[in-house]
Amino acid sequence: MLLAVFLVALVSVAxxxxxxxxxxTGDPMSTKLVEWVRDHGGNGFVNxxxxxxxxxxxxxxGGLPKGGxxxxxxxxxxxxxxxxxxxxxVQVLPSxxxxxxxxxxxxxxxxxxxxxxxxxRAAVWETFLRPDPIHTSEVVGAVWMDATRLRxxxxxxxxxxxxxxxxxxxxxxxxxxxxxxxxxxSGFKLDSSLGGYYTEGKMVxxxxxxxxxxxxxxxxxxxxxxxxxxxxxxxxxxxxxxNLSMLVDGSQNLAAGDPNDTHRxxxxxxxxxxxxxxxxxxxxxxxxxxxxxxxxxxxxxxDVLIRAGAVRAMELDINTAWVSYFTYTGGGAAGPIQGTxxxxxxxxxxxxxxxxxxxxxxxxxxx
Length: 367
Prior knowledge:
- The protein is α+β, with helices and mostly antiparallel strands.
- The chain contains five helices and 18 strands.
- The strands form three sheets. An eight-stranded antiparallel β-sheet has the order 1-2-3-14-13-15-11-12, with helices on one face.
């Protein structure tokens, strides 16, 4: 009898794991295995293993990036300049980011245009810098996104949030790709995010007052703020994705006092652990700012966001498998669409958001 129960349990586990590994989510097998363990009661175990690994293998200190150079922003070839429509405001670019390293490299912290132009001007600008004065061989990327030229949309992954049917499912459809300018990763899994998820008129998980939220309005404009203080539910709300507590508020680093507060920053890896992290915020004019890269703890992520101009910001996802930012060129009459990673050592391929994707993400389109 016990043997029969054991065999039934074994078959059930094997079927569940096999189904998870075979699911066309676009994730590597190793990532699918880890996610399956998390979803079947092993979240604490995975967290302990990850914490042990990252604390035992910290990023190197000192030195220079590979080749002694920073990455270069990739931009589409620009044809003869078209007149800019008078209804489009004059572009006000952010100030250069003050580097953290004592001996800056050429163009460190200097913004450069990336991806395709919108109404005759670049809508996305990127810069690269070392994340602190110690980890000087590591490079993170910062992105400034012009709110006057871009509209945002939340896309829903196969597994996160799952469900549906969705008007914006797990990839940007071919018919929408000509207008696609950029895309970036969303937040933690919902069980770990300490917050809610709302989109397309569906409350997937109840929104929580006080939680950090990236909010997309029905006109495609976007903000980042505290739910219930900066933004509230109304007919102009298209999507809300919450993740933990605010990381930057009033241009202040809220993680500086206690980066190990798991209630505010989540229990998935300690806030002091240096690992791939990402975050998103808004500047004083309402433009989006994204930061992602390796060798970041919760405090240095906030520091980079602030220096890049964020007045409010939140952490997004972490770990190499989940931190992704892409700009796009081509699409439609301009030829096949091509994605480019923000950082060349980002884990996922540039077509990540053009094929089936396991998790939700933010896509930015030309207005």
